[in-house]
Amino acid sequence: MSKDTQGTPVLEARGLVKRYGKVTALDHCDFDLQPGEILAVIGDNGAGKSTLIKALSGAIQPNAGEILLEGRPVSFASPNDARAEGIETVYQTLAMSPALSIADNMFMGRELRMPGLMGQVFRKLDRKRMEDFSRQKLSELGLMTIQNINQPVETLSGGQRQGVAVARAAAFGSRVVILDEPTAALGVKESRRVLDLIQEVRARGIPIILISHNMPHVFEVADRVHIHRLGKRLCVIDPKDHTMSDAVAYMTGASVPEGVAEPA
Amino acid sequence: MAEADRYEDVVRTRSDEKFAEFEDTGKGLWGRFHELLHTTPAIVPLIVLLAACIVFGLILGSKFFSPFALTLILQQVQIVGVLAAAQALIILTAGIDLSVGAVAVLCSVIMGQFTFRYGVPAVLSVPIGLACGTAIGAVNGWLVSKVKLPPFIVTLGMWQIVLAVNYLYSANETIRAQDIEAQAPFLQFLGTKFNLGGAVFTFGVVLMLIVVLVLAYVLRSTAWGRHVYAVGDDPEAAQLAGVDRHRTIMSVYMLVGFICGLAGWVMIGRFGSVSPSATTGVIGNIQAITAVVIGGISLFGGRGSILGAFFGALIVGVFELGLRMAGADPQWTYLLIGVLIIAAVTVDQWIRKVTA
């Protein structure tokens, strides 16, 4: 299943650098995401995973280095730029407005307007179209039996909210879906469901970047594991050839993978 | 991965996967009522408004329920109504604007002084006044959004600055109603009265209704309106979800400045004269906040509707007129409004609980 080197990566980063004052969060970091794979990104706290992901999703701008989307250099000034290229992110905080409805949240920042005069002159939102689309996307991912697509997000459980956030990303993420700690705040049963969801999304051919601290989850769903350490990619391993203990040892520096020179 | 590691699989096989169904769990009548309030918060002030009308109607009879008395309430709340609409917008973004009343007074002074001091035609000095209001709003918005100062502080300062500029610029001179009527009647345009089946309306009242209805539509049915709620609810989340936070906040403060300018124009229509020492400059902000709070808009942002603020302004108007007609000491009005404010926030806390 490992697709190490064939073809052009969907998303690629070369020599990314990001400094916050004296702290170097990304130190000439490389990154590759192959078509159709689930790539897990693991690393200890402070290793720079979040910074890497934010750079790839446009939430921060790296000081140096380049990002390539399907081989073409891109630069994202904001999350909207990345989104316009089909890269969707599910943030750990979910980035949802609790008081607004599921449909409002699905379309936040990319609302659909009514056709014709009502939309152009009066900027009227096409609620029906947005609601139908949201309902359809939620049921495609098996997230819905009936329902009130207009209920506020705050009335949903943690798992349901995560489900809506994943559905939003899957619905609009035509090229890449990034998931930041999707199971961190969830119970066992809800995590299970979200992992199924992730595989569901991959089954539609969309590659996924999964940031997680949960080794069993990473080893269960990932095709490759990108191990991040001290602001750069230490190595990429195939979960079938390594154990979880190996991975933990690499990311904490307890041992060094073959062929990698660990700096002092 | 070894079989022994799949310790979570037991959940998959033994659960019925009822994890994300959105089912109505039969909450009963009370629950439904709570849900209705949760989704339509303007209902509470509407109920209070109707109840107040009924009570005063029973006490005062046809004296209160005459078209004259009811439209008098509208005329009396027109300035506060417009200011409350502006205030509601700011409070929806989790801000607060203490400068609304002062900006309204300054705008009315600018409209008057440009006409009388510089000889600018009134049809031009009104838009100039509105532009000044918008510009002050832009400064407030910029300080809140870019410099990241708390809105309370920014507008507390702006309130004092605007009031002082207002006195300095006008030299505390009132422009008399007769002079305006003779030389620049357009300034008093919003005071124009017209009769509709025994009820007397002014254009100012009509303008207030238009402002409220347009804002209600825009907030409900356009992307910008949804962004205002999202930014007020959780600015970080809104930003990550793709909302331009800075643009949204700037546009809200500028629009509020513009609406305050309109309130200034309404003031000239209502009073006839242009007075830099109009009480609106000092208490307009508090009156507007009172209406907004009674109208059920959360001071924490993101919740409530502009119609609620309008109902809040009307409730205050009904209390003032009703108690005056009943011959009560005006202090009773303040006492009851104080009770209403506290009650409104208590109800708001209850409504905001997701499950009753």
TrEMBL record, chain A:
Where does the ABC transporter domain lie?
11-255
Spell out the molecular function terms from Gene Ontology.
ATP binding; ATP hydrolysis activity
Keywords, ordered alphabetically = ATP-binding, Nucleotide-binding
InterPro entries xref list: AAA+_ATPase, ABC_carbohydrate_import_ATPase, ABC_transporter-like_ATP-bd, P-loop_NTPase
Q: Which Pfam families match?
A: ABC_tran
Give the protein's recorded name. Answer: Sugar ABC transporter ATP-binding protein
Which organism does this record belong to? Answer: Alloyangia mangrovi
The uppermost taxa in this organism's lineage are: Bacteria, Pseudomonadati, Pseudomonadota, Alphaproteobacteria, Rhodobacterales
UniProtKB/TrEMBL annotation, chain B:
Q: Sorted alphabetically, which Pfam families does this protein's record hold? A: BPD_transp_2 (PF02653)
How the protein sits in the membrane? Multi-pass membrane protein
Q: Where in the cell is it found?
A: Cell membrane
Tell me the keywords, alphabetical order: Cell membrane, Membrane, Transmembrane, Transmembrane helix
The family database entries (InterPro entries) matched by this protein are listed as: ABC_transp_permease
Q: Which GO terms describe its cellular component?
A: plasma membrane
What name goes with this protein? ABC transporter permease
Species this protein is from: Alloyangia mangrovi
Recall the taxonomic lineage recorded for the source organism: Bacteria, Pseudomonadati, Pseudomonadota, Alphaproteobacteria, Rhodobacterales
